[in-house]
Amino acid sequence: MRAALAANQKDRKRFETDIQASEQKISKLKTQTMEAKTNDQYRAFQYEIDFCQQEIRRHEDRILELMTESDPLEKAVKAAEAALTAEKKQVDEEKAKALARTAVDRKEIDTLTQERKKLLAEMDPKIAAEYERIRKGRAGVAIAEVVQGRCSKCNMLLRPQFLQELKRGDAVMVCESCKRMLYWNPPQSVEDLAIA
Question: Is 150 within 8 Å of 130 (Cβ atoms)?
């Protein structure tokens, strides 16, 4: 719409320039008419003046048409600018909320990272190294819970003997399928038995 309005204004200026040029030409022709020596010269100058006046009227009519066309365009451009301003305001508000959420998330990530480092320092170095190796190879998830006899990450059913060894908790065990370290949460209540 803005382009259409700019084109409309450009056309109006062009027609206004043409009108000025025609008026200047008429002024010169009137001066030349006074110097005409024959009736034929006089009529030729008069014919040129009439032609220029018709051109001026034609350009003025077109300017009026363009002005009529420009009113709705100007209103549409103003409405679009108002909508754009409102949308920019909404985007800025959403951006501020997102930045605030990001700051909170970063703070939580920093806290969890520090806590993780602390826990890794307290772990057996061999187990910590194995944990880091698995975590890097498994998109940051090195540990999986066993739920209903299955690894919660790859959903593979564990062998009964393997599950019994895991429940004893004598050693760190890894899933035979996805190679993540496994842990088992013993049921705390009768309702939890259905889940285990």
Answer: no
Q: Residue 149, by phi and psi: left (phi above 0), alpha (psi -120 to 50) or beta? A: left
pLDDT in tens, 163-172: 999 998 888 8
Integer Rg of the chain from CA: 43
> Nearest CA to 128 among 138, 115, 117?
117
How confident is the model over 69-78, as a mean pLDDT? Answer: 81
User: pTM for the complete prediction?
Assistant: 0.44
* Nearest CA-CA partner of 179 in 160, 151, 157, 150: 151
pLDDT, tens digit, 9 for 90 and up, residues 22-59: 899 889 888 888 888 888 888 888 999 999 899 999 98
What does the alpha-carbon distance between residue 143 and residue 182 come to, in Å, rounded to a whole number?
A: 6
Q: How confident is the model at residue 175 (pLDDT cuts 50, 70, 90)?
A: very high
Q: Minimal CA–CA distance to 177: which of 152, 146, 156, 153?
A: 156
